[in-house]
Amino acid sequence: MRCTVNFKTYTNSIWDKKQRKTPESDQTVFYNTQPAIITEEVFEKVQQIRQQRHRQTKTGKSSIFSGLVFCADCGAKMYYCTSIKFEKRQDFFTCSTHRHNKDQCSGHYIRAVVLEDMVLRHMQMVISYVANHEAHFRAVMGDKLKLASDEAIRVSKKKLAKAEKRLGELDRIFMRLYEDRVNGTISDERFASMSKSYEDEQTQLKKEIETLTKEIDQQTQKADDVERFIAQAHRYVGLEELTPYALHELVKAIYIEAPDESSGKRRQNIHISYDFVGFIPIHELMQEEMA
Ligand SMILES: [Zn+2]
After folding, report:
1. Which of 90, 121, 153, 166 has CA atoms 20 to 30 A from the CA of 224?
2. Which contiguous run of DSSP H or E holds residue 79?
3. Whole-angstrom distance, CA of residue 125 vs CA of residue 226
4. Distance 91 CA to ligand 1 centre (A)
5. Which residues are placed with Cβ below 5 angstroms of ligand 1, an ion?
6. Gap between the terminal Cα atoms of the chain
7. Using one digit for the tens of pLDDT, what is the confidence trace for 62-104?
C-alpha cells in the first residue's frame, strides 16, 4: 500500500480550546531506568499511559501513543489494535466510536509505524524551527495564544457578570421571601420549597463564579506558556528517535483524520496539539522563512 502523508495545521481550531492547564510545579523526579530528569507532569502522564496500557491490551504489547490519539471527526479516543501474531508494522489505531458502531464514524485507520514517522517528522521540524528562529516563533505563537486567550477571557467575563447579577437578584428575592414569611403572606411549606430552590440556584452560581474566576486567572497567565514550550523544545534539539519522554513532554494530543483515497493514493492528515501552545502552523512558518 502506497501511503502519502501530509500535515495540516490550524491556527483557529476548536481543539485549541482544549489547552491544558499550566503546571504549577517544577518539581523533578528521578526515574529508575532513565538518566534524564523529567518533570513531575511528564511523570504523571507516563503513569497514566501505563495504567491505560494495563486496562487495554491483553497481548502485553503497548504503544507510546496510547491515550494521546483521537479521532479528528468525532473526537473519541482511537484504540490501539494489536495481536500477538502482529508484527510491529501491523499494529494500528482506529476510532473507538467506529469500533462500537460502524455507522457513527468511519474507521480512521492508521498504522502505528506510519503515525510514529509522521509525528517524529513534525516534532523534528518544530524543534528545529524553535532552535533556529526562536524570536519569530515566540512572536507568532505568542500572538496566536494571546488572541485565543483574549477571546476566552472576554467570554468568561461576560458569563461572570451575568452570574454575579443573578446572585444579587437572588439576595433581593430572599429578602422579600423572608418578609412574606414574617408577614404571613406565604405558608411555611411554600416558603420552604421556594427557599430550597433559590438556595440551590445560589450554590450553583457560586460554583460557577469560582470556576470562571479561576479560568480568567489561568488565561491571564498564559503569556508564559510559549516560553515553557520553547524551553522544552530546546531540550530535544537533535531528536532522532521518538522516545516516550520526548513525545509526552512535547505533545498533548494527536488528531487523526479519515484517510482520503479520492486521488487513488491514500492521503491522511494528522493534527498535533503541542503542550502549552496547541497547534503549531509549522509549514506556514517554514514557508515564511523561505520567502
Ligand atoms: Zn471517530
Report:
1. 121
2. strand 78-81
3. 17
4. 18
5. 71, 73-74, 95, 97, 105
6. 35
7. 889 988 999 999 999 998 888 887 788 888 999 999 988 888 8
